[in-house]
Design brief:
With about 110 residues, the chain is an all-beta fold. Helices cover about 0% and strands about 20% of the residues. The chain is elongated.
Length: about 110
């Protein structure tokens, strides 16, 4: 049986939730960290090298992100989708069932 505690460290104005270690941090400026005490994005889950998601409107996830439903990414007139890895799609038949792109696609192979 684990007890949970809330505390404010003497060196900050953050609110932290703790059981056997710090688990959730609510920073004074509004950023939230799960699994980290130094969230860089508005919501930071885990620790890792975060170089792009650094404002209150951003989300940073270390590890896998699974979504059961649709994902809507940005406004095609102003936003950019950058994939820093291979694009792999699977469906019930084991292949990418569809990929719809509105706008332009470019590739920078290495």
């Amino acid at each position: 049986n684990v007890n949970w505690y809330a505390y404010i460290p003497a060196s900050t104005k953050d609110l932290r939730l703790y059981d056997t270690a710090d688990r959730v941090t609510f920073q004074n400026g509004g950023k939230v960290g799960i699994g980290t005490t130094v969230p860089a994005a508005g919501l930071t889950i885990g620790t890792g090298t975060n170089t792009n998601a650094v404002t209150l409107n951003d989300l940073y996830v270390t590890g896998n992100l699974e979504v059961d439903g649709s994902i809507w990414l940005g406004d095609i007139n102003t936003d950019t989708l950058t994939l820093g890895a291979n694009l792999v799609g699977t469906s019930a038949t084991g292949t990418l069932s569809s990929l719809t792109v509105t706008g332009s696609v470019s590739s920078n192979s290495r």
